[in-house]
């Protein structure tokens, strides 16, 4: 979660697992609401714009209520509506990034085109070949425009 291209305010990570007929999603999220250091907080940005700061308990309640609505839409088969909402706030459209592949540290220059039907990042390379970047332990550094294998 970024404010412009300079400040990281938080992050989200999601992992999906299939168990028999169930799809289980585990979501982890963090947001810097009040800490002014080492970066900036959401409330700093809000305060500088002359608006009232967010109260942590109200923010959490609102967030979980909206998340519950989004999950309900998915459960009712309205994924297209959720995807449209996702793209409304999409940050990566036409972003030029580099992918470091595991084998031989080969760097590929690609352009982000969106997400595929499974939620994986969709990119097109310099040869106009479009493909998905799967969650196989990769790390996406938006500030660097880089997808690289995580060090374990």
Protein architecture, described:
There is one protein chain. The protein is α+β, with helices and mostly antiparallel strands and 152 residues long. The protein is 24% helix and 36% strand. It has 3 helices and 10 strands, in the order ββββαααββββββ. The chain has a 6-stranded mixed sheet with strand order 8-7-6-5-10-9, with no helix packed on it. Strands 1-2 form a two-stranded antiparallel ribbon. A hairpin with a 5-residue loop joins β6 (107-115) and β7. It is globular and about 50 Å long.
Task: Summarize this structure as a short list of keywords or feature phrases.
152 residues, alpha+beta, six-stranded mixed sheet, two-stranded antiparallel ribbon, 24% helix, globular
Q: How much helix is in the residues?
A: 10-25%
Q: Helices and strands: which structural class?
A: alpha+beta
Average of the residue pLDDT scores: 83
Return the string of H and E elements: EEEEHHHEEEEEE
- Distance, first to last CA: 24 Å
List the uncertain runs.
none
The helix count comes to: 3
Largest sheet, in brief, is:
6 strands, mixed
Q: From the alpha carbons, calculate the radius of gyration and give it in angstroms.
A: 18 Å
Strand order of the largest sheet: 8-7-6-5-10-9
Q: What share of residues are in beta strands?
A: 35-45%
General form = globular
Count of DSSP strands: 10
């Amino acid at each position: 979660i970024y404010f412009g291209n300079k400040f990281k305010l938080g992050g989200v990570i999601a992992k999906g697992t299939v168990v028999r007929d169930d799809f289980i999603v585990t979501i982890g999220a963090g947001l810097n609401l009040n800490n002014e250091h080492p970066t900036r907080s959401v409330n700093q940005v809000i305060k500088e714009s002359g608006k009232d700061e967010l109260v942590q308990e109200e923010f959490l309640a609102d967030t979980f209520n909206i998340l519950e609505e989004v999950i309900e839409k998915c459960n009712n088969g309205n994924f297209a509506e959720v995807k449209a909402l996702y793209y409304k706030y999409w940050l990566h459209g036409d972003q030029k990034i580099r992918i470091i592949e595991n084998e031989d540290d080969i760097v590929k220059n690609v352009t982000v085109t969106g997400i595929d039907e499974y939620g994986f990042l969709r990119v097109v390379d310099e040869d106009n070949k479009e493909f998905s970047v799967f969650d196989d332990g990769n790390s996406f550094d938006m500030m660097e425009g880089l997808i690289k294998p995580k060090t374990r």
